[in-house]
Amino acid sequence: MEIVTQRKFMRMADILANRKFHIGQQVGEGTYSRVYTAESATDGNTYAVKVLDKTKVRTDYLKKFMPRELDIILKLKHPNVINTLEIIQKRDFVFQIMEYADEGDVLHMIQRREFIPEEKCRRIVRDVTRGLQYIHDLNIAHRDLKCENILMFSDGRATISDFGFSRAFDVGTSNTTCQTFCGSTAYASPELLRGIPYDPNISDVWSLGVITFTMLCGSMPFDDSNVTRLVRKQTAREITFPEKRHGDVTASARQFVRQVLEPDINVRPTPAQILEMTWIPT
């Protein structure tokens, strides 16, 4: 993304000041947005504010994906889903005021430590699965689960964030398949990469498996430089744990990853089934 000019930053700061928020430092950046800290003059707490510059985004995102996201995030109230307190819409900007995850995202945690110890990984996966079960029960699919979108708090709580590509389905809808490619190739399920209609909830579970492997090993389970080869490895169940981590990752963890990274959508577990697995702490 291009550098935010001082004039534009001051405009953002003025808008937030009118809502009694003092904008702070930038703590994150997405495809179409930036995330800053914001201190509330009302309660003195620090929040995160996601700022979308509407003048810089694609028209299809502005008309299709953004309205979906804004409609969805205000419905979500769960300890393992990032909580949005307020949405401020202006001509050029959209501000999402959210709870501030003071430990950052899982990707940066991995980059700092090379990998995440298995005991901590188990708790993160449990929290993410609980959050995933919650949104799926609301007939919402995330469609962009990845390490960058799992935010951590100092108390150890993990939360799902960034619903920019999420989609809600009407209750009782018989057809809940999607055809739109969403998310990152490295986290995408084989059915999604094949370009066929896919169940986004089942695809979300695959992404959870990729996240789990990446946390445990500090690397991705599949090379995504060639999509054809990637799908072939996914469907052949070619999951190889790196030698430097193989001895430290328990057999039950390796089994868990292989169960979740199941290419057969009829066998791949649901979030409810994952929470019953022995590797997941209670």
Secondary-structure topology with pairs:
Blueprint: H1 6-18, E1 21-29, E2 33-40, E3 46-53, H2 59-73, E4 84-89, E5 93-99, H3 106-113, H4 118-137, E6 140-141, E7 150-152, E8 158-160, E9 167-168, H5 190-193, H6 200-217, H7 227-235, H8 243-246, H9 251-260, H10 271-275
Antiparallel strand pairs: 1-2, 2-3, 3-5, 4-5, 6-9, 7-8
Kindly describe this structure.
By secondary structure, the chain is an alpha+beta fold. It folds into 2 domains: 6-99, Phosphorylase Kinase, domain 1, CATH 3.30.200.20; 106-275, Transferase(Phosphotransferase), domain 1. The protein is 38% helix and 17% strand. The chain has helices spanning 6-18, 59-73, 106-113, 118-137, 190-193, 200-217, 227-235, 243-246, 251-260, 271-275; strands at residues 21-29, 33-40, 46-53, 84-89, 93-99, 140-141, 150-152, 158-160, 167-168. The protein has a 5-stranded antiparallel sheet with strand order 1-2-3-5-4, with helices on one face. Strands 6-9 form a two-stranded antiparallel sheet. The chain has a two-stranded antiparallel ribbon with strand order 7-8. Helix 4 runs antiparallel to helix 6 and helix 6 (200-217) packs antiparallel against helix 9 (251-260). The longest helix is centred in the middle third of the chain and has 20 residues, at 118-137. It is globular.
